């Protein structure tokens, strides 16, 4: 989970992405990630709200048994 916090900190430093809760904690649950279309290169600014947006963070999530989860 610490790696996740590091990755999210890197993403948030670009200011186009924010989270709730903010700041993220190691024990944060039900995290929401917001992509702000009006910031950055504005490549998402005209997308309809129904458009799926995918982000790759490079984080592997492992459950309590050491098994990777999707």
Summarize the helix and strand pattern as letters. Answer: HEEEE
Shape: elongated
Strand content is 15-25%
What is the CA-based Rg, rounded? Answer: 14 Å
Low-confidence stretches: none
Report the mean per-residue pLDDT as an integer. 76
Decide which structural class fits the backbone. Answer: alpha+beta
Number of helical segments with 4 or more residues: 1
What is the CA-CA span between the terminal residues? 15 Å
Helix percentage: 10-25%
Tell how many strands the DSSP assignment holds. 4
Describe the structure.
It is a single chain. The model has no long low-confidence stretch (mean pLDDT about 75). It contains 1 helix and 4 strands, in the order αββββ. It has about 70 residues and is an alpha+beta fold. The strands form 2 sheets. The protein has a two-stranded antiparallel ribbon. It has one domain (about 1-70). The chain is elongated and about 45 Å long.
Task: Give short descriptive properties of this protein.
two-stranded antiparallel ribbon, single chain, 17% strand, 16% helix, 1 helix, alpha+beta, elongated, 70 residues
What's a quick, concise take on this entry?
The protein has one helix and four strands, in the order H-E-E-E-E. It has 70 residues and is an alpha+beta fold. It has one domain (1-70).
Strand-helix topology:
Blueprint: H1 2-12, E1 17-20, E2 32-35, E3 61-62, E4 68-69
Antiparallel strand pairs: 1-2, 3-4
């Amino acid at each position: 989970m610490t790696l996740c916090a590091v990755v999210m900190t890197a993403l948030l430093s670009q200011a186009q992405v924010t989270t709730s809760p903010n700041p993220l904690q190691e024990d944060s649950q039900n995290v929401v990630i917001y992509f702000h279309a009006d910031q950055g290169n504005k490549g998402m600014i005209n997308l309809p709200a129904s458009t799926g947006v995918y982000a790759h963070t490079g984080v592997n999530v492992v459950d309590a048994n050491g098994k990777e989860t999707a």
